[in-house]
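[Discussion] Sanity-checking designs against the backbone

I'm trying to build intuition for which residues belong where. Below is a structure token string of 190 positions. I'd appreciate it if someone posts a full sequence so I can compare it with mine line by line.
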């Protein structure tokens, strides 16, 4: 040990990981379901760039501090090899019947999703139902009104939960729902 210190030797992180049966790598994948709209004409139609940058920065920083390297991969079948050679997968905003969840199940990769999933996978998420209900209650306490619900799409779980909370709140208060649908899925157009 003294000789190694004197020579400035440090053990290879990769070798230590492989010796422990790990790769030291995590994979981050944005679900194809997060790509709302017509991807052939506008591949960024449904992306809320700030949200994804925050997810990427946060995951990267936490992975680094935990001694992992984080890679981002595409969300198609060609990703299979990477999923089988990683210590874990993080999937952002999976859809109800997301093909990426099928791929993770087939490869038996360790996985957590940012957003609830329909599988028996671990997930982290906000309580959108509760937050929407509390926001509606706050609005009506501040000034009795008839809040409307504005949405651009319903494929995202968080939008479906917010809509469900709004309709539940309307039913409980005897308020006629007002749902306004955007003519476009693009956030800037909405």
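Best answer:
Here's mine. Compare freely.
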């Amino acid at each position: 040990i003294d000789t190694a210190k004197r020579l400035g030797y440090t053990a290879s992180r990769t070798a230590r990981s492989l010796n422990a049966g790990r790769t030291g790598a995590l994979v981050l994948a944005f679900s194809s379901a997060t790509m709302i709209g017509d991807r052939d004409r506008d591949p960024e139609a449904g992306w809320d760039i700030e949200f994804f940058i925050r997810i990427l920065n946060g995951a990267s920083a936490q992975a680094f501090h935990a001694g992992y390297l984080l890679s981002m991969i595409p969300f198609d079948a060609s990703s299979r090899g990477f999923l089988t050679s990683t210590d874990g997968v993080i999937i952002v905003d999976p859809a109800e019947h997301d093909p990426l969840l099928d791929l993770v199940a087939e490869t038996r990769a360790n996985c957590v999703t940012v957003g609830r999933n329909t599988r028996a996978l671990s997930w982290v998420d906000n309580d959108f139902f509760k937050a929407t209900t509390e926001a509606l209650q706050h609005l009506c306490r501040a000034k009795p009104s008839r809040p409307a619900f504005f949405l651009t799409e319903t494929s995202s779980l968080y939008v479906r939960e917010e809509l469900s909370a709004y309709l539940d709140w309307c039913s409980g208060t005897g308020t006629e729902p007002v749902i306004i649908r955007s003519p476009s899925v693009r956030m800037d157009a909405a």
